[in-house]
Design a protein that fits this description.
conserved putative lor/sdh protein from methanococcus maripaludis s2 fold, 41% strand, Elongation Factor Tu (Ef-tu), domain 3, four-stranded antiparallel sheet, single chain, 4 domains, OB fold (Dihydrolipoamide Acetyltransferase, E2P)
Length: 350
């Protein structure tokens, strides 16, 4: 019986010692959530306004072609978007029958005026006509010559005439079709200098006051593959009834590789550059309408309220609430709670 008791005591002692061994010690604290941080620092930033628009040839370097008489379009010798040299054929036209008849009447009036002038001159030499008669005949002849010469200069012989490009560039538009009758003064075509491009943007009315003529503007295609810097040339303070936007035009450098009609995105500089604290957009967390940022304090995430300002691409200005040098969580903060332990990860290698 004593042996059994001694054995039982030994087993109990072993269990007691085992309970007091390493297995009974506290487990290591759980690792904090991995986060990346950025020290709050001020840097020079340029506030910009985002706008969308399209590329076009500057009207100052574009020529519209029209005729001073009614004509029939015989054929088109070019197409919109085609590059042409100066003097290249664009359209074939011929005057309408009414214009041809007008020219014939002018020539007939000129013939009559010449004969009448010669007759009055002979009569005046015989003292059978007065100086007033001769002056009237001379005036009628001058008017008839001017009318006939004007029609001849504008119409020529009355046959088919080739309308040619006045400058080298791109055919921006052909506003007619073969067989159409176009009135005098109507636009037939437009040719522009392909190296004189501008971007036309639509902006909200309330943003007009902040846009200055000459402001730097980054213009890029919608895929972000081509970008150039231009300058605001015109700010039109009127509203387009279709888009309900105001209009801003930006001149582009001669080597800009855009095509007329291409849609583009613009970043228009507003005011002068400023030294501001900014953080990536992902660093801002919201509690209702309250904006905040998580900062690292003694290994834990602490939420601080901030007031945000201008946007600079993918970064947002922090107007107040964040001190210089504070470690702001820029990745991993979206799911954190105030006071949660965190582990700062090393920044990714460039």
């Amino acid at each position: 019986m004593r042996a059994r008791c001694a054995g039982g005591a030994a087993i109990a002692l072993g269990l007691f010692l085992g309970a007091c061994g390493p297995a009974a010690q506290d487990a290591p604290a759980a690792a904090g959530a991995p986060v990346r941080v950025e020290a709050a620092a001020a840097s020079e930033r340029q506030e910009r306004l985002a706008a969308f628009g399209a590329i076009e040839i500057s009207p100052d370097h574009s020529r519209t072609i029209s005729l001073s008489y009614e004509a029939v379009i015989v054929s088109l010798r070019a197409a919109p978007g085609q590059a042409v040299a100066s003097g290249a054929p664009l359209i074939e036209v011929r005057p309408t029958p009414a214009v041809v008849l007008e020219q014939r009447r002018a020539l007939e009036a000129l013939r009559f005026a010449r004969e009448d002038h010669a007759r009055v001159t002979r009569l005046r030499a015989q003292s059978l006509a007065t100086n007033a008669d001769l002056a009237a005949a001379q005036q009628n002849l001058a008017v008839a010559e001017a009318t006939a010469n004007d029609l001849d200069a504008r119409i020529g012989a009355g046959g088919v005439r080739v309308i040619r490009a006045p400058i080298a560039g791109l055919v921006e538009a052909l506003d007619v079709e073969a067989g159409a009758i176009v009135p005098a003064g109507a636009a037939l075509a437009r040719v522009g200098d392909a190296q004189s491009l501008q971007a036309r943007f639509g902006v909200e009315i309330e943003d007009l006051a902040a846009i200055a003529q000459g402001a730097s503007t980054l213009v890029e295609d919608l895929r972000g593959e081509v970008s150039v810097e231009g300058r605001v040339a015109r700010v039109l303070r009127r509203v387009d009834p279709t888009t309900r936007l105001a209009e801003v035009t930006v001149t582009l450098p001669a080597d800009a590789s855009f095509l007329p009609g291409a849609p583009v995105r613009g970043q228009i500089a507003l005011g002068a550059p400023r030294n501001v604290i900014t953080l990536p957009r992902a660093a801002i967390v919201y509690d209702g309408e309250r904006a905040g940022v998580f900062v690292v304090q003694q290994g834990a995430a602490r939420r601080v309220d901030v007031r945000t300002g201008a946007e600079f691409g993918d970064r947002i200005e922090i107007v107040s609430g964040l001190d210089l040098g504070q470690q702001a969580i820029v990745e991993g903060g979206a799911s954190l709670a105030d006071g949660a332990p965190v582990t700062i990860e090393a920044p990714a290698a460039p």
